[in-house]
Amino acid sequence: MSAKDFSIMKQEDLLVQRSGNQCELCEATENLKVYEVPPATGNMDDAVLICPKCLAQIEKKKELDNNHWQCLTTSMWSEVPAVQVMAWRMLNRLRNESWAAESIDMLYLDEERLAWAKASGDHENDSTVDLHKDCYGAILQNGDAVVLTKSLDVKGSTINAKVGTVVRNIRLVPDNTEQIEGRVEGQQIVILTKYLRKQG
Ligand SMILES: [Zn+2]
Description:
Layout: H1 3-19, E1 33-36, E2 47-50, H2 52-58, H3 72-75, H4 81-93, H5 98-106, H6 111-119, E3 146-148, E4 152-153, E5 160-161, E6 166-167, E7 171-172, E8 179-184, E9 187-192, E10 196-198
Helix pairs in contact: 4-6
The structure holds zinc ion.
Zinc ion binds next to helix 2.
């Protein structure tokens, strides 16, 4: 075991102990993971133990579920700075809900913690998330297979992919939810999400 593995293990142990082995935001107990609260400070306790449901929404891979995040009205009172910071960020993303706006007003962070909470810029986002979606609105993920719903005639290439062509193992183009990348006839090309549907 390398020194790095050892330190990761110790951090997980620390968080498991601190949290009582439950999600520090919603108290779920399954498949918990260590989440380094960005930007990383390098301190072992500046991380939180969270569940997959919280993580997917924090990372904007799923739409925010207003009911799920009612859990913050409890977890925001945690004495752990990293939990306070995450609660503050998520409450800000939900600030259009009156319960969340009221909670932010009650949650006091000292100057240093407030600066950390704001450092990611997350609080300026709202509850909407930018997801890559196919022409029917199904959410796309890296590695998905898709089917072309329009023939592609790629300028400057010999590619002529017909409707119904399957493109496997797509990659989402970061910062542009209208585009994915995929390999067609041996070439990596950009395809517009409005011209494809998720397979399966
Ligand atoms: Zn959770």
